């Protein structure tokens, strides 16, 4: 049994980790921290976990806690403060913040507004998008778990880029449920402001822009110019991305179909479909993706997923499974709600 | 032209007052205050008023401002601090807070947690529900504008009580859009928490309980035992109340129908219908009400309105019209959106 | 391994049965019927079941199919046509329609508008609300699976009635997500009509009225006068009921608390809480219930559940587990989404 | 007083026309037709119009009716059947269907699947987007009122194309409330299917594609390659478009700002803003538009409007005002709800 802890367990991502881990056959949840709820029973703060998680929130991880694996559901900035000492203790870590995603410390500083304090970790961390980088993940000790937007858009564009079917300029119009914005109160997620609207935010300057660009460029083997606009949807769970690119000359619909099938044919968690849909994925670790060839030789690549599962906690556990040599889908083999 | 000012103009209620007043033929909006947005153009803070309101927010009302009428869209506690001096200057006031609604200072202290500081105003204020207390309102100088829940539930229960058709025990199950909770951020109105749910709150201890009881008892001529449960709906605008009472012996459906028709037959703003519906009222000053005789000799009285219009700003203007001898519907004669 | 089939598998209830059964360790799903989708792969119609259900829809159950258990997710009227022959073949049946819920054929005819055609089944069927009637269910061959509204309201009122703490007159104000209305298109569930509103329907004449009354009266040991008003919420999954009753003299809050704890202390699927909440239950077989003592000696009993799980498919599987001597929570031991 | 009739008055567009016209000072509503509701009082079918419209639905327009103006809120196909005879009678017509929008009969046949039966009308009709084609509209007898998507996207892209600031390839990612899909029941607008999701539909083959392309090309003076993807939002009213184009070399942010200000500086109904928002426009005839210069030299042009007002009925009345020499904003000078 792999002994695991969650740091930052009372936010939406942390509690989603607990929701899935409590039923994982090979990982046992040993500790959950939350400064805010320190000392309280987890199931009193998160009533849905009643009968499934019998722990109290700790304020911090125990110095001498016997953990094999730690999930950091901490905000960026906090993760890189605590991860070096975990690594030194030989604990494998999946970090769900943005701290280790952009390999380049200068890029980090530019987008996150502070200097990175763990350059060694930043260098060693593996970007945890299993469908693209599975082999590296298996060998990793520190995983930078991808953002929800990068997961959804990269998975839907990767087949096109990998097969060289499109130009190196992509436009990603992304729509997210409000749970992606987290538990902290904000004007953006105040129901009277967002409940009957769709709200673009951070247009042209969202931190996921360099992350998406990094992933796509790596898949393409060359720089991919990336335009990304996130919008907040008036739903709680779920994400949809609609991406656009110009097909190269003479690319046929069959070529495109083959590229998707080839990349995701054996995949447990990416489902190729004519029409991706949020409800099919909600509650599950599945990303649905598909495409339409539109007029003007433009391909419309679509993706749908549950931002808290495949977009965060589920993918983190998928990464952990790989790091520990388990079957990739262990503890994650449940279908979406469908409706 | 009646010269009016709004104190507290950047909240939802204050901006709704501005939205309606800017088109009122006999009231001119001379000033709007907002400490938070002091100095800014109103239409920069509230873009929908662009081209309609050409004022800047003041921090406070001018000491020597020439106003005939002031709408106080201030929080309870603040209203009673500023209203006495307005009254002394001979300005008519409509207060949209709870400060002057409960005539009894002890009741006020019990439910609002502080001593009332304007006993004279409290004594003189008239409760501004025109369909029930129109003649008093015409003569008033200070109006306590009703809460949204008391408006919706009182209007739907009043015909039954006035005609003596039901027992003096009513149950009101109320559902409100989130704009009723105001602009201040709160866990209750955080979209991820409320956007896919219905959330009861302050069950058994909401401040509208004594207010509703006061109105119903006055209509009935005797104490009406009042149970009231508010719920937050995942919509922005609109309120619905479903109320229950036992019919007295031998009361027929015709008796009930007659009571509603009699009370609201000539009413501009209360529409009797088989099935009240929020969308029919949204954007308008209309309250729809109707009833069904259910099994067990129980009458189900329903009401629907726009919580920001008939539930707040529209009713305030209806009251102002009456106080100044205007036609009750001046500036308010526009239909709801319907869909 | 118990061999099971679903009749009517492409509706919301049928597909929810498949969603849960595909992971049940002791029940294997052998067949699913759907006239409309006959011949199609289940996972093409219900993409979320891809990788979990490898069947095609049949038009009807095979005459000689080797089933131990059949779930009828058929409309009322259809169930009673097919169930007698299943019973003759010795197959255990859980019927999710209303056909077998009201034991009395005259009551059935009154509320369902047709004569019952399987009087023997109607007589033998056991009402499948395990928290109230567990022992009978264990011995049953035919289960009438409760409606979603009766489940939610009965579970929240039963402790009060069972302990004799309230008068025999209850008011149930119920709110349901739209998935409860099923897959058939209707004006009521047309998004433009219902998406920014709350819509009461069938006030005073919903078929769940006699069902709720039957259950509550059985728990109370005497007739319980029952008023029930359903409302459609602008959410997809989830149900909330707010119920009202007069406490008998001298009943204390502790008495009420004890009644809930006593009835549900050992329960896997009913969680007593101060404030029931839909999101805590969505995706799970849990019903949350709790109460507040409001003014006027009135108790407000609240319930929340997922209308497709504890309100339909989950409870059906819970009943099947009991009928076959399995642990009640087999295949159902997963937590709700929480957010 | 201009005498007007509405053909097809019980759909969402028709009733929105009635909602606005009933308060128009210079247009009197003389007749409304609806086959489905023939003989019924308008205000019984559309309760929000109670006290505002005192007409019954006719089955058809009277042969000898004395109308100056007819609004056709009929489906495409039906409009071109009835409009020729109206034109012969010298009645001015605003057609809200797609029948007269695409000037070219072959293009019409390609996208609407039938031959056009009124080639003369098709030739003479003027495309009614006043902010772009105001002078033509003034002289027109037959207006093809634009679709909601073409209005929102064209208004937000026109300044860029008119000033020659972008390449002739634009991507429009559009999101609409469900009222845009009309009153007819459909799987797409079934609440359980769409209420917690965002649903792309008709990707690459929506009828608004050639319409948008026609408008943009006309503004640009040359062909504009147009990619358009509509999505259904889980809200009732409101539309948002996010459009993408490559800026030409050396175009600055100031150039772009100037282009918007120049085109819409004196406009009553197009508001240039940093961040367009649906709630600011709902209930009003305003389209908000604005832009952000994103990385990769890409401009993101955004638009928001109420699909039933500026996207349909309000714009139709704006066109009628122009045709009859009235002030463009007569009867339309009311602000949006804001919240």
UniProtKB/TrEMBL annotation, chains A, B, C, D:
Record-linked PROSITE patterns: ARGC
UniProt keyword Hydrolase, yes or no: no
Pathway(s) of this molecule: Amino-acid biosynthesis; L-arginine biosynthesis; N(2)-acetyl-L-ornithine from L-glutamate: step 3/4
Gene Ontology biological-process entries: L-arginine biosynthetic process
Annotated keywords: Amino-acid biosynthesis, Arginine biosynthesis, Cytoplasm, NADP, Oxidoreductase
UniProt-listed Pfam families: Semialdhyde_dh, Semialdhyde_dhC_1
Catalytic machinery residues: 148
GO cellular component: cytoplasm
Superkingdom field: Archaea
Residues in Semialdehyde dehydrogenase NAD-binding domain copies: 3-140
Function: Catalyzes the NADPH-dependent reduction of N-acetyl-5-glutamyl phosphate to yield N-acetyl-L-glutamate 5-semialdehyde.
NCBIfam families membership: argC (TIGR01850)
Name of the protein this chain belongs to: N-acetyl-gamma-glutamyl-phosphate reductase
Organism: Candidatus Methanomassiliicoccus intestinalis
Designated gene of the protein: argC
């Amino acid at each position: 049994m792999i002994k695991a802890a969650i740091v930052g367990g009372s936010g939406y991502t942390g509690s989603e980790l607990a929701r899935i881990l409590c039923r994982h056959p090979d990982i046992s949840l040993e500790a959950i921290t939350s400064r805010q709820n320190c000392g309280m029973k987890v199931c009193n703060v998160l009533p849905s976990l009643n009968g499934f998680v019998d722990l109290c929130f700790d304020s911090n991880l125990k110095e001498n806690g016997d953990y094999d694996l730690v999930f950091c559901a901490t905000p960026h900035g906090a993760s890189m403060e605590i991860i070096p000492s975990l690594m030194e203790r030989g604990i494998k870590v999946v970090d769900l913040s943005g701290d280790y995603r952009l390999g380049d410390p200068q890029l980090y500083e530019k987008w996150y507004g502070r200097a990175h304090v763990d350059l060694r970790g930043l260098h060693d961390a593996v970007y945890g998008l299993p469908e693209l980088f599975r082999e590296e993940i298996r060998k990793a000790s520190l995983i930078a778990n991808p953002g929800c937007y990068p997961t959804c858009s990269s998975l839907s564009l990767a087949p096109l880029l990998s097969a060289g079917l499109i130009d190196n300029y992509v436009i990603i119009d992304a729509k997210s449920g409000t749970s992606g914005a987290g538990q902290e109160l904000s004007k953006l997620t105040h129901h009277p402001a967002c409940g009957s609207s769709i709200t673009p935010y951070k247009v042209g300057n969202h931190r996921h822009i360099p992350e998406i660009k990094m992933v796509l460029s790596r898949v393409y083997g060359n720089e991919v110019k990336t335009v990304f606009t996130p919008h907040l949807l008036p739903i709680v769970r779920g994400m949809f991305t609609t991406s656009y690119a110009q097909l190269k000359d003479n690319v046929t619909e069959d070529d495109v179909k083959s590229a998707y099938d080839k990349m995701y044919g054996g995949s447990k968690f990416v489902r190729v479909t004519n029409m991706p849909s949020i409800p099919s994925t909600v509650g599950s670790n599945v990303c649905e993706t598909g495409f339409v060839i539109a007029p003007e030789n433009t391909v419309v690549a679509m993706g749908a997923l549950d931002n808290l599962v495949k977009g965060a906690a589920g993918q983190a556990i998928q990464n952990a499974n790989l790091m520990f040599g388990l079957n990739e889908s262990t503890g994650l083999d449940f279908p979406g709600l469908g409706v």
